[in-house]
Write the structure tokens for this entry.
Amino acid sequence: MGLGYDGKLFILAFDHRGSFQKKMLGITGTPNAEESRRISDAKKVIFEGFQQAVADGAPKENVGLLVDEQFGGSVPGEARERGFKLAMPVEKSGQNEFDFEYGDAFGEHIENFDPDFSKVLVRYNAEGDAEMNRRQLERLRRLSDWLHERDRKFLFELLVPAEAQQLESVGGDTARYDAELRPDLMRRTIAEIQDAGIEVDVWKIEGVDERSDCEMLATQTRAGGRDGVVCVVLGRGADDDKVDHWLTQAAPVDGFVGFAIGRSIWGDPLKEFIAGSLERESAADQIGRNYLRFVRVYQDAESAVSA
């Protein structure tokens, strides 16, 4: 199996764990059995919305789910049974430093669920803590080697949080950091990860405001003969206008093939469902329509350039 991925990829992401239980359901600490059941049921509503979107025209050959083992319940198995692409996380939730959720047993869990993509979320700044970066690279190289030895695909979610001095250099303005500093820091970080022998099939990266930055990032992900490697845009929980802009910048760029969006799709309707102000079917319907709208935004932006 060659490095990379061939085809479009529109992922509905709901592998959130610690933040999901706390922010969506107000559950702190380790959830008990009943609390875990409630969390899993809320995620099932998202899956129901996803299925509605497919029924309403989302292209089945290009759609996928990113869901976790801890609270995913029956969703991973049902996704595989229905022929949807499945991605599952490998990392511990809510940590600044990447580590394996299941320690040395990570491979057993991957093989048990058999996802199409094994995903990591990694916070890494090339100008950040050098020792922490080194530790992360070692663990990520171990995972990369394990996956590719078994012809499994690696989905890498890269976040590049600002270092204090970087934020200070733009007057403490996070919007300026995102626009002026983050794009090249992402490129440098991707290069460092590649130089460490970590081979990624699909990069899940934060949106950037300029198409030229999308082109720069796609070029870096394919450097050194990695011609099949692709990128998808993540949503960061941003509002529709912001996500739409990121998608329209990325969609026409060779090397970008879709998105992996979560809270921007299901955040509001799921909150209303949990609060009791929205019926389950209506919440799922809204989630499905939100997801399908982003699919069409991406497809329209891609078609507009090629027309």
Notes: The first strand starts at residue 9 and ends at 14. The mean pLDDT is 95. The first helix runs from residue 18 to 24. Strands lie at 9-14, 63-67, 85-89, 117-123, 153-159, 202-206, 230-234, 256-261.
